[in-house]
């Protein structure tokens, strides 16, 4: 913010005063705007602090209980405070990981297409559709997977179906982040490689992508953090299970959001105990991913 | 080569604009680096090049195909149920799929509740997001602007189910005095009229406030990005004329950023329209149709589908919900497309 400091001491004195202090009305307006703008920021902090504090206060007891991280809820009665959520943590992680395995290569290749190859109408359409995909509600993505794979192709409900829905939600995040990083790679690098006679595809794979790597990794971690909290796909595409299921391709599987949602119908106080415990667990996992993402982006080869 | 750039560019996140010159790629990509020696003929890209180009454009096409497939499959699954629908799909307020032989479903009530809650959220979130974006780009010192922006982005990292739980367990009781005041003293206005719920918690009003919190970071992020691109010389020209900070914003920043602000708000609206689980948890079901009051209950498109998700077994009733999902898809498609057109390339993402 460089302010107009030079105006108070003009080099040549003018005959009439060329600068007048702002009138009271303008000053009041200016101060009012400053106040309101600051107020808006403070207002936004209120729900953030409020939500986090609620989750920590109500969930801390659960996640500190001895069985929380190492047991499932297998055979645990609704009113009992025993058991843990490791089956749900496993479900959340494996569903997100499977989605990433599919979404990351496609996303990176699509981003390369948009930055390095795409010209003309097809590239414009693709870019537009990435924006549209980013706005597709998770419940619609889940319904699509249900309609295409379960209704028409006759697949069973399983954790893998959830992963397929999560792929649709991850793709735009991965594409946009990678795209942004690829565009930041200086053209001199590409030109130097071309000058050495290296084909374009090798230049992209060996020079451009490694330079943009940390930004891409950041994007993937943020995308993972986003899809881990998704509840709509698990509601539609997989059944809840109180015990561990290691096979993502068949059977019911718990995940943290699904566990929270099914415990909502548990009238016992222990249901609330589990809900807020799972909420805090989910927030912790997401925070770790977010922190990891910002650490990785610090090691970026190209600065934003 | 990679290492050299790493060394040449200090690892300084504050170092902005150093790579700003890399936007013009067209000149480079039109050259053909696949050309080998002179005797190998002209411009036939090698096999590696062709495969790689095919893979990348295939992935790009996949995204286009995915959107087309979503629309197509939802339509295919919805049509049989729509044909079997005994009620008017657009105007009927009932959604009864218990008897597959006698389906009665319409989206009138879903549309009212969805639009009412989302627009209310938008009205709440838009001015606050504008304020935050101005604060972060025009008022806060550069050093703290980045961490502050990160804090706002954290709002987007909280899963929606947690917003739902917080909304009904903590926020709803806290909003009760305000809701009571609005209904008792401003009830003559149709938005604040007594609704179809016996209580004042878990209404569209509560849901709208929760949605407003959830869409705040999206609107802020887009608006902030556009505001930070406001032309330097416009700002300096306004300053040179002796404008106060607010006048600089009004003359130079807002006119430039208006389209981005509107685009960001449309993206936020799209998110609110499709929000599922928070709305399902917060807004209570009602037995009578909505009467355009904020103190009504009911289902949005998304929350209705999620509430019935465990009963998706018979094709015809399921198709009814898929039809509702198709309407939601079209709605968000239109809203997002408008956002993209309004932004006119200023906003990326």
Which terms would index this structure?
heterodimer; A: 304 residues; mainly alpha; MetI-like fold; 11 helices; 69% helix; globular; disordered N terminus; B: 349 residues; two-stranded antiparallel sheet; 1% strand
Q: TL;DR?
A:
The complex is a heterodimer of chains A (304) and B (349). Chain A is mostly helical.
Describe this protein's structure.
The complex is a heterodimer of chains A (304) and B (349). Chain A is an all-alpha fold. Chain A has a single domain (86-298), classed as MetI-like (MetI-like fold, Orthogonal Bundle). In chain A, 69% of the residues lie in helices and 0% in strands. Chain A is built from eleven helices and no strands. Chain A has helices spanning 24-64, 86-117, 120-135, 138-152, 159-184, 187-195, 200-211, 213-228, 232-237, 256-263, 269-298. The longest helix of chain A is centred in the N-terminal third of the chain and has 41 residues, at 24-64. Chain A is globular, with a radius of gyration of 26 Å. The two termini of chain A are 20 Å apart. Mean pLDDT of chain A is 88; it is low at 1-6. With 349 residues, chain B is mainly α. Chain B has a single domain (95-343), classed as Orthogonal Bundle (MetI-like fold), CATH 1.10.3720.10. In chain B, strands 1-2 form a two-stranded antiparallel ribbon. In chain B, strand 1 (95-96) and strand 2 form a beta hairpin. The longest helix of chain B is centred in the N-terminal third of the chain and has 37 residues, at 47-83. Chain B starts with a helix and ends in a 6-residue tail after the last helix. The model of chain B is unreliable at 1-42 (pLDDT under 50). Chains A and B meet through helix 1, helix 2, helix 3, helix 4 and helix 5 of A and helix 1, helix 2, helix 3, helix 4 and helix 5 of B.
What is the element layout, followed by pairings?
The complex is a heterodimer of chains A (304) and B (349).
Chain A: H1 24-64, H2 86-117, H3 120-135, H4 138-152, H5 159-184, H6 187-195, H7 200-211, H8 213-228, H9 232-237, H10 256-263, H11 269-298
Chain B: H1 2-8, H2 26-29, H3 47-83, E1 95-96, E2 104-105, H4 108-139, H5 142-157, H6 160-186, H7 204-228, H8 232-240, H9 245-274, H10 277-282, H11 301-307, H12 315-343
Helix pairs in contact in B: 3-12, 4-7, 4-9, 5-7, 6-7, 7-9, 8-9, 9-12, 11-12
